[in-house]
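> call design_seq(struct)
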């Protein structure tokens, strides 16, 4: 059943009422936009919704249970207990999802977070149990170099590539895929292995909506909304559509607000946008995360009142770009590490900043400008796909491969550490206490032994490299001499200027990581040696003072006698 049939064709009276409602909403929007009034308007709505939640004592106890905390993508986005979706099958009944309703508009949705790797089965079980016919995905799998949603569907056609979920006794098969300019439409065959029954589930995947941002234009969003409505998945005679982004509140809330307000204008000829938002927030916290998203909601409602009743807009079909395979999901996943040569010619990054410098230079080698601070917070830092993939691959190598293959470093000596802890106190040396010279000599011998223990691990930093006397670092010793020419410096960095094959990116990263680890060890040992020298000097000064006191007392006693 299509949404057009459910709502019915607009009559002339309805069109006139819609125009009046559009004018009223547009006037409110323009008045609030003056000065800083829009941000204040958004803040007032948020505070009003928060007060209402406290007055009605909305709780989130289930999400805060120890066994359920790991099932939440974000710590501060939890489903209300009174509207949360309860899973019926399996050992876990919790999922971060709420049933959001607006009865005046005959609308109900399930708003949820982007599935985690451990909650993919719970997600599809919810789709099956709630009899949902469609999934509206409003985010990409990876945004701003961060994974926002786990790939929860098979990205290849055919039953042999189906996603098997034995924990919930379900399988998901990709049957068909169509790619449009701003979204992808997929058809899945969802099968219950217990009953062998199958059901068709559609997915509308909006791919041009940035995180914490807004779509490129209201027209593009309205075309997406029209496609969703025409499928019939928002009708009240089917299960609620599952709407999700990453947290399930920002972009998801924007979609629901625009859709509900447009339905209310069509049915009743009027709509209070802020009131509708507060009603929706009574089912799931934090819907619409930014003032810009609320701004876009008003723009889309104003444009939608006009264009969703315009036959020329409704009849203009979106062209299909591709319908063979699901290539978009594959494009969002990080590709294999491409060959790197330019970054290997760069000088060795000093100290612990080398890892970050490698990541930034991976982007610089592609012509991108990278800020030294807040590199992960700026969406414009790595704008090209190649630069983004390089950044991701470098990050994964550092965290996954390099750490496992690092050569073991010698352990820090335990005896000097205990000696240093004792020497931190100002009360270690009592100048009034008379000790024998033999005891003082024994203390000096202890310090000398501890000093010799540290000398066994003595390292010499040269040009950012660290040499050790342990067998584990023989390859680093080979690079510890000061180079007499630039060619030797290149050789120390893994570059053979004689035309030989340069070191691989993996080995170069391992070597630099190992060098940084050893530089950190050198710093620790230098500090320990410095403290031991101070301890030695203090002991000698204390011993000298006691000896002088003994001589003075002996001299006075001789005079008295």
């Amino acid at each position: 059943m299509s949404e057009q049939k459910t709502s019915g064709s607009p009559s002339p009276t309805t069109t006139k009422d819609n125009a009046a409602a559009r004018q009223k909403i547009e006037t409110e929007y323009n008045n609030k936009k003056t000065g800083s009034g829009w941000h204040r308007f958004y803040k007032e709505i948020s505070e009003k919704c928060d007060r209402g939640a406290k007055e009605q004592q909305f709780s989130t106890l289930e999400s805060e249970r120890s066994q359920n905390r790991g099932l939440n993508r974000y710590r501060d986005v939890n489903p209300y207990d009174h509207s949360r979706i309860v899973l019926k099958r399996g050992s876990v009944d919790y999922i971060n999802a709420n049933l959001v309703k607006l009865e005046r508009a005959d609308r109900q949705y399930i708003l949820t977070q982007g599935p985690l790797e451990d909650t993919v089965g719970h997600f599809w079980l919810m789709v099956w149990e709630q009899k949902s016919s469609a999934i509206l995905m409003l985010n990409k799998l990876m945004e701003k170099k961060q994974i926002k949603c786990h790939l929860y569907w098979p990205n290849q056609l055919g039953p042999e590539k189906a996603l098997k979920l034995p924990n919930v006794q379900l399988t998901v098969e990709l049957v068909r895929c169509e790619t449009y300019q701003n979204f992808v439409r997929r058809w899945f065959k969802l099968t219950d292995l217990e009953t062998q029954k199958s059901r068709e589930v559609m997915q509308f995947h909006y791919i041009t909506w940035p995180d914490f941002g807004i779509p490129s234009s209201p027209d593009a969003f309205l075309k997406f909304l029209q496609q969703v409505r025409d499928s019939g998945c928002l009708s009240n005679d089917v299960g609620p559509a599952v709407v999700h982004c990453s947290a399930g509140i920002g972009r998801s809330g924007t979609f629901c607000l625009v859709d509900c307000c447009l339905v209310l204008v069509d049915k009743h000829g009027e709509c209070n946008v802020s009131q509708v938002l507060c009603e929706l927030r009574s089912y799931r916290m934090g819907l619409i995360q930014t003032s810009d998203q609320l701004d876009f909601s008003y723009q889309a409602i104003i444009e939608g009142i006009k264009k969703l009743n315009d036959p020329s807009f409704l009849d203009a079909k979106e062209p299909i770009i591709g319908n063979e395979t699901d290539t978009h999901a594959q494009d969002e996943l990080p590709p294999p590490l491409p060959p790197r040569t330019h970054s290997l010619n760069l000088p060795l990054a000093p100290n612990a900043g080398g890892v970050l410098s490698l990541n930034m230079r991976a982007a610089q080698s592609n012509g991108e400008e990278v800020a030294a601070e807040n590199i992960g917070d700026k969406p414009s830092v790595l704008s090209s796909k190649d630069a983004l993939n390089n950044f991701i691959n470098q990050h994964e190598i550092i965290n996954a491969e390099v750490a496992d293959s690092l050569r073991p470093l010698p352990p820090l000596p335990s005896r000097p550490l205990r000696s240093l802890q004792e020497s931190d106190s100002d009360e270690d040396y009592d100048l009034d206490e008379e000790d024998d010279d033999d005891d003082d000599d024994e203390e000096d011998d202890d310090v000398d032994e501890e000093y010799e223990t540290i000398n066994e691990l003595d390292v010499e930093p040269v040009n950012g490299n660290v040499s050790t006397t342990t067998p584990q670092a023989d390859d680093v010793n080979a690079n510890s001499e000061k180079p007499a020419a630039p060619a030797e410096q290149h050789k120390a960095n893994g570059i053979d200027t004689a035309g030989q094959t340069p070191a691989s990116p993996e080995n170069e990263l391992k070597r630099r990581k190992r060098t940084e680890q050893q530089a950190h060890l050198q710093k620790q040992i230098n500090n320990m040696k410095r403290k031991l020298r101070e301890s030695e000097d203090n002991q000698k000064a204390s011993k000298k003072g006691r000896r002088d006191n003994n001589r003075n007392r002996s001299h006075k006693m001789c005079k008295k006698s």
